[in-house]
Design a protein that fits this description.
With 148 residues, the chain is an alpha/beta fold. It is built from six helices and five strands; from the N terminus they run E-H-E-H-E-H-E-H-E-H-H. The chain has one domain: Ribose 5-phosphate Isomerase B, Chain: A (3-Layer(aba) Sandwich), CATH 3.40.1400. A five-stranded parallel sheet has the order 2-1-3-5-4, with helices on both faces.
């Protein structure tokens, strides 16, 4: 299950990504926004991150104009490792090395085809574990110490 959400700036791209997920029969839940009316990105990022944090979704995808604001918000939640990816290579390594469970995209910086390639790569890539496992555990330890 993937939770997906966008603000008004990412709405059109979110709708295209949903079509891709539907074509691949990948289950998702849409956390908003549901039109191009102004929406506050922190609320949408919070909704998606909460779905992932609570285990209702395995992964989350968030989209705003730059992807930066939503990524910052998502990473305020315990257990969230959100990566803002601009290309397939970043998406691959965010999963392989960091076990990212959320993906942030900037709608102003990519067309639909590029976004779909990033999403496809991110979903298909597995966490490599090994030497990276210890680093992810270190992130979790830092998180536990600093997020009360």
């Amino acid at each position: 299950m993937i939770a997906i959400g966008s603000d008004h700036g990412g709405y059109k791209l979110k709708e295209e990504i949903k079509k891709y997920l539907e074509e691949r029969e990948i289950e998702y839940t849409d956390c908003g926004t549901f039109d191009e009316e102004r929406a506050e990105y922190p609320e949408i990022a919070q909704a998606v991150a909460t779905e992932v944090e609570d285990g209702q979704a395995e992964k989350g995808i968030i989209i705003c104009r730059s992807g930066i604001g939503m990524c910052i918000v998502a990473n305020k939640f315990k257990g969230i490792r959100c990566a803002k990816c601009n290309d397939e290579e970043e998406a691959k390594f965010s999963r392989m090395h960091n076990n990212s469970n959320m993906l942030a995209l900037g709608a102003d910086y990519m067309d639909t085809n590029k976004a779909i390639r990033i999403v496809r790569t991110w979903i298909a890539t597995e966490f490599e574990g090994g030497r990276h496992e210890n680093r992810v555990k270190m992130i979790e330890q830092i998180e536990n110490e600093n997020m009360k």
